[in-house]
Each structure stands twice: as C-alpha cells, then as structure tokens.
Amino acid sequence: MTVGFGRELVRRVDPAAVPTWLGPLPKFSRDRLEEAYSGGDLLLAIAADDPVTIAHAARFLVKDVRPFAKPRWRQDGFARARGTESDGRTMRNLMGQVDGTVNPKPGASDFAGLVWHGSDAGWLENGSALVLRRIRMELDTWDRVDRVGREFAMGRTLREGAPLTGKREHDEPDFAARDALGFTVISKDAHIARAHSTDPSERIYRRAVNYDDGLEQGLLFACYQRDPLAQFVPIQKRLDEADLMNEWVTHIGSAVFAIPPGWRAGGRLGETLVA
After folding, report:
1. What's the pLDDT score for residue 264?
2. For 18-22, 30-34, 84-88, 138-142, which range has the lowest pLDDT when averaged over its residues?
C-alpha cells in the first residue's frame, strides 16, 4: 500500500505546508490529458501478486473513505507474474521493450538523496513525491514498424534491451559512436538519448506497470523523487520536444502526490502533517 496526498488535501490541513512542486505539472505540447485520469486529492496505490487480493483490499479501502471522499478515477495495471522471469530482470512494456533500465538502486549511496526528503522538508521529512502519468500506446501502428525501426526509435535492441552501441542491457550507451557512413549509431532523437542527462541529480526512481482496459493499452508510469520540477520535468521536456517514440505514445493522464513518511507503532499515517 502506498498513500499519497494531493495539493488540495494538504492545503485544507495547512496552506503553509503545500510544497511548491505539489500540483499540476507544467503543460507539455504533446499532452492530451483527460480529466478521467488526472488530478486527485488522495491516492491509494495497492500492489500484490494476486488480483483477487488487490480487488478485495481496494473495495474495503474505498468503502472506508466514502464518508469524506468519492472516487475520481481508478486505474488497474499489471506486470509479469512473480516467478515467470528471473529476479532482477527489467520489466517489459506492451511494445515488447525493456522498460526502466536506467534506474537508481534502492540502498545505493545516492538513492536517498534522489528520492527521500530531508529535514528541510518539514512534515515531509523521510517522505517523497510521486508523479503518475497514464501513457497510451498506439500499438496498431507500432505493429507496422519493423524490428530495425523499433530499435532505432528506442535506441536499444529488442531482445536484450542493450543500447545499439553495446551488447548487454546495462552497458553504457555511446552517443558519439558513428557507423561506417558517419551517422551516429544512436540517433540524437532516440528515446534513450532524449531521456539521458549528464546531471546526476536529474534522475527519478521508476515504478511503472502496464495497463489494458480492453479499449486501449499503455503504461502507468510512476516515478518517485524529491522534487518533480527539478527531476521529472526536465526529462519530460526533452522527450516532449523531440523523441522518436512520440509517434506511438500519448500522455493522457497526469497527477502529482506527496508521499508522507511512515510511522512507528502507535502512530498514524500523515501525523506529521496534522500535528
């Protein structure tokens, strides 16, 4: 279970406690956001290996909040079932690509500084910020693209997920490498090139899942960071400006939540905000 607070919830408790980044993201030119998948004051994110468990938990949690809230949206996602792939393998999205290769590792020396808030964040100390984006995939037109075209647009091979200049998924891409004709092996507008940053603080912790509601398919892209304006937004701006994958993906949902810190036995969720 992950619980997030939207801007309006925090404002109603304490207007002075609203972080500058907590609210709608800046508009991106290619966004086609729909109200049905955007915004919200309270997030309940439920994850489990079994969909029956999720459905049961969701029903009771939603029932418990009915006295003071009503559902704005519900989005169901999925990944591969536990045990179908080896531990540590990067998930694949519905385009068949590995999704989330470049990701900070929990426990690494720089992870806390990227994801968790420090003492200067007041009530959000040891909390985080979550950006959720619903990304529709145009799979019918994607199916018409050959393997070479798919790999060129992403900048990675389909089979291994390796950069086009490497052999293994986690090989460092060489954006300066050129082929026999003098062209860069990885296009400057390939997805991995546009998402790449030389600023080590401009990174996010990705936790995406796929979705398929019968009418459309895509990715529920979730990422955690200290400050979405400083970490997520610069990356998304570059993708919005010129990403070859924009031909086949459209952002149709967007929300930002403050993730409160955990609590000790005898405490309660959000106690640092309401104290």
Report:
1. 87
2. 84-88
Q: How far is CA 196 from the centre of its chain?
A: 16
| Strand ranges for 6-127 from DSSP E | 42-45
pTM beyond 0.70: yes
Please, what's the b/e burial string for 110-142 (b: 16 or more CB within 10 A of its CB; e: otherwise)?
eeeebbbbeeebebbeebbbbbbbbbbbeeeeb
Q: For residue 128, give the amino acid letter.
A: S
Which two structure tokens, joined as six digits, stand for 96? 């068949």
Instruction: Write phi, then psi, for 78 (nearest 5 degrees).
Output: -155, 155
Q: Which DSSP helix (H) or strand (E) runs through 140?
A: helix 139-142
Q: Which tens digits make up the pLDDT trace of 48-78?
A: 999 999 999 999 999 999 999 999 999 999 9
Q: Give how far the C-alpha of residue 94 lies from the chain's centroid of Cα atoms, to the nearest Å.
A: 15
Cα separation of 190 and 243, whole Å? 6
Output the six-digit token pair for 123: 């009530």
- Residues 6 or more apart whose CB falls under 8 angstroms from that of 94 comprise 137, 139, 210, 212, 217, 218, 219
Contacts of 185 (CB under 8 A, 6+ apart): 164, 165, 174, 177, 178, 179
Q: Which of 31, 41, 76, 99 is catalytic?
A: 99
- Calpha distance 144→141 (Å, rounded): 5
Assess whether 99 carries a catalytic annotation.
yes
